[in-house]
Amino acid sequence: MNIRESLENWEEEYLSPYAAKSRESAGRMRDEEQCDIRPVFQRDRDRIIHSKSFRRLKDKTQVFLSPMGDHYRTRLTHTLEVSQNARTIARALRLNEELVEAIALGHDLGHTPFGHAGERALNRVCPYGFDHAVQGVRTVDLLEKDGQGLNLTFEVRDGIRNHQTKGHPMTLEGRVVRLSDKIAYIHHDMDDAIRAGILTEADVPSQITEVIGMTTGERLDHFIHDIVSASSGRDEILMSEPVAEAMQRLRQFMFERVYQNPQAKGEEGKAEILMETLYDYYLHHPGVLPEDFQGLMDRGEPLERVVCDYVGSMTDRFAIAKYEELYIPKSWLY
Hints:
mainly alpha; Hypothetical protein af1432; flat
């Protein structure tokens, strides 16, 4: 018996009967030889961490566009916080931590530069539409490794595709990530808004604080404990009704005070124009696309879809640099 098989046996003995077991995975799109050390979900996690799309998350906007400060969240730090929240919940419920971690680390790989502003822009101009969760699966299936993809398991791909509110993940681990994503962004977006002077703790309505706490830290702790208590011993991941209602009120408060705040979001219109302009440029100049993206068209992928892939994969910094290169006049050098 090798190490992987011993770990698979441990899962069978220790994990909850409702947990996803590595040995019972629905498999990959392409069959491949098993690793003798790592179960399948651990391999998926490792592949995601070593991917280029994961590294690019460090230069993609979370909420505040190109913030002038070292402590504001980026898409990468958001991803790490989702992963930590999800692993804490999964461990308490005896679910498969490696599956949870793989889904959490991969859930935003399809995100655009400039956060949801970039996503809105590409969804408007691309005839195929754009949804970052769907694009995340396309990223791991097709765009990574020069078109080979990461060949992840069905369970991880399902969790990435269904991590948004409208999604319905097939595994409890995917549902843990789905909730962990919400509580992570509510927690850290409020923390960043307080740091930016847009909010104070005293601004949070009392009908929220009386249920889930007075500070961002208290609220995060309350959310996680409530999910564990409400879900323990059940084939579902949920919150108690009072806490779920308080979270919905807090989310609405954040939309009113932060996500739609002109002070926080005043530059997003410019970001959307930049994204639409880059899309239009590459649509009319496909010959300047990188070789691996041109290779996708050689395989039959439509031009509009490939241009969306390229522009959507950019970081904030790279997108701005490309826009300046293409549209901003340069000083005379001679």
